[in-house]
Amino acid sequence: MKFNMLFSPIKIGGVELKNRIVWTGHGTGFGNVINNNIIAYNVRRARSGVGMIVVGYTSIHPTCRLLPNELICWDDSVIPEYKKLTSAIHKYDTKIVSQISHIGRQGGSDYSGSHLLAPSSISDIVYQEVPKEMEREDIQEIVDSYGNAARRVTEGDFDGVEIHSGYGGYLIAQFLSNYSNRRVDEYGGSLENRVRFAVDVINNVRKKVGNDYLVGMQLSGDEFTPGGITIEEAIKIAKIVTDTNKLDYLIIKAGTYFSMNTIVPDFQHPVGMLVPFASAIKAEISNTRIGTVGRINDPAYAEQVLKEGHADFIGVCRPLISDPDWVKKARDGNSEDIRYCVGCNQGCEQYLFKVRGISCTHNPEVGRESEYDEENVPRAAIKKRVMVIGGGPAGMKAAEMCARRGHTVALYEKERELGGNINLIKKIPFRDEFGGIKRFLDNRLRKLDVDVNTGVDVDEKMIAGSDPDVIIFATGAHSTRVGNRQYGADGNIDGINEKNVVTDTEFLRNLDKDDFTSRFRGNVMVVDGGENHWRSIGTVVHLAEYSREITYVTPGPFVGHRLPPLSLPPLLQKLYNYSNISLMPNYMLDCIKENSVVVRQLFNNKEHILEDIDMVIVSMDRKTNDSLYFRVKEMYKDQHKRIVRIGDCLAPRDTLKAIHDAYTVAMTIQ
Ligand SMILES: Cc1cc2nc3c(=O)[nH]c(=O)nc-3n(C[C@H](O)[C@H](O)[C@H](O)COP(=O)(O)OP(=O)(O)OC[C@H]3O[C@@H](n4cnc5c(N)ncnc54)[C@H](O)[C@@H]3O)c2cc1C
Ligand SMILES: Cc1cc2nc3c(=O)[nH]c(=O)nc-3n(C[C@H](O)[C@H](O)[C@H](O)COP(=O)(O)O)c2cc1C
Ligand code: SF4
Fold first, then answer.
1. What is the pTM of this model?
2. For 621-663, how does the pLDDT look when each residue is reduced to its tens digit (9 = 90+)?
3. What is d(CA 590, CA 532) in angstroms, rounded to the nearest whole number?
4. H-type helices in 289-432, by residue range?
5. Per the residue annotation, which of 41, 57, 170, 587 is the catalytic one?
6. Most ligand 1 atoms within 8 A of CB, residue of 418, 654, 664, 665 to mutate
7. With a 6 A CB cut-off, is 145 part of the ligand 3 pocket?
8. Structural domains of the chain sorted by starting position, each given as residue range(s) with its CATH number in brackets
9. Is 170 one of the annotated active-site residues of the chain?
10. Is the CB of residue 360 below 6 angstroms from any atom belonging to ligand 3?
11. Calpha distance 574→570 (Å, rounded)
12. Ligand 1 centroid vs 618 CA: distance in angstroms?
């Protein structure tokens, strides 16, 4: 066994876990009550051997609905449904606990249909809705609700209960933190007073579940919030709550909605960023197990964290969303086969914010586990010869899945390397992690012995020559110099073909050529056509260390408005801290006249002329690379041949959709 410590059993309270890997609680948006999708989603990870599953955010009271599609547990009707889930998980010798949660002020009455409750009537920074300051009766009612929810958890045959909201700026944390608690009664002011609500909840939960039942809680190691909890205070809080002798574990997380990015840290944060906080708390606590979580992707690193004594167990959330077999692969010594989470937050966290079920950029099975299972892919009834044209993420995924279904697959890529746009994205150093998507698919294709042909620009002649049964076009899209509808019917922009203008992909393609990049040492303008995503913004961040002045122009209402929300704070911190970056949201490019660029304010239509611009990088419309597809379709018009398009070649979108298209189409090839 390579990771002895990670796979050693651990006793937490009265419960023994077979290993030290805990799939930490997370909202999924899969429904208000346990349903078949939720069961299949959890069973898939239990099957891989995870030690314990924490079922995420579950509202204990009608005043605390985080989102309308999240779990609720405020009456006994949930118990029979709980039993279905817990009995399914227990077949795999995995323990399962349920979070019981209250968001306090960090929500909206639009979702709950009820006013919000909080220690003080101060709105939070995101929802900006003033909550009701909790009166004594409210405090009593919510403490009771926690207890009743905990009782339902026991009756639903869970192995334990996790008291949620001690971190992330949710209700218990709101009491704990000076940032949100301005009370002058015995629940506010001194630390002892601010911890009182948490202790009331812990006492009542313990009373309802009995002495032997597993009870855990989360705490923030640091709220990263002005006036909020710091590690020094977190240690004191941890001591008070564990001195009750009523908690079996603490898991150390971070943040409030002020510092939302630290709640689910994306690729802009270092791996294991919260380990030092768990470590500091563990050093002071002896009667309670301490868990750490947060970008612990690699089992080797997880092992190191345990060996160095920073924590008793390791929490992983997105790593198991991205690869349900993470545990099995780590245990069997196949870590190189893990589909590592790339920290993009595009499918998981962002979908939750879109009030839909979560997904994953490179795991299309998330939320569809009852339908799809890559470990048991149904073999196709008839073995077909499948030709996949284009070796970007869509083509690579299609080739992988078709091969797994038993087809004979040949994949063609005109560049020397597979990967498509991922090769461009990862050229920007701070986006290197996105390259993990390509690395994973490359490895899969090698293991499946797919006939991979690089450096081959496929044309009709080649296709006619090999005459495959199925042709999948995954030829992607290209960045154009044409603007979207804001620029009138033809989308033309005067001066966009000047010699000092390049598209984003031209820029990235040539990033390793000194004579090319030296042209960008002066004043550079990056123009977004409306996508306002990493395609343009990634370039700005990169240029900050390189160019004299950079101006970013976007018609978006603010910079990065279409990025996953939790990616914004660290991004904006970077952009606003560079003195050589100017940001111009609500502006669009009007025309380029040599070294002058005219932009126009969207709402008053006023012109603004920027002089002395040496180079302009444009991220305008993307256009499908579909001409070969249409020619081949015409060539075979009298034959019943399956010819399909996927990914950006079908419609330019993002990597998630490209990979999901590929997966879905591959499953339909019989
Ligand atoms: C700069 C930039 C940043 C981006 N950032 C993000 C991001 O942060 N997140 C995100 O989700 N998406 C991002 N995208 C979008 C994402 O890259 C695409 O949606 C995704 O790559 C589409 O995958 P695909 O396989 O359909 O196409 P591509 O990745 O474009 O791959 C198509 C492949 O087909 C090959 N090909 C074309 N014609 C032929 C032919 N005749 N014969 C053989 N091969 C051929 C091409 O060489 C290419 O390798 C970004 C795009 C760009 C340009
Ligand atoms: C989509 C999503 C939803 C989450 N919801 C919750 C939640 O309901 N309760 C909770 O305690 N943590 C929640 N988290 C935080 C995770 O449990 C975990 O602390 C965080 O993702 C960092 O760990 P990771 O890097 O292993 O993903 C959520 C994370 C994600 C990605
Ligand atoms: S969507 Fe991105 S961050 Fe979320 S689990 Fe998948 S790879 Fe990780």
1. 0.97
2. 999 999 999 999 999 999 989 999 999 999 999 999 999 999 9
3. 17
4. 299-307, 318-322, 326-331, 349-353, 393-404, 422-425
5. 170
6. 654
7. no
8. 10-352 (3.20.20.70), 378-476+625-668 (3.40.50.720), 485-622 (3.50.50.60)
9. yes
10. yes
11. 6
12. 17
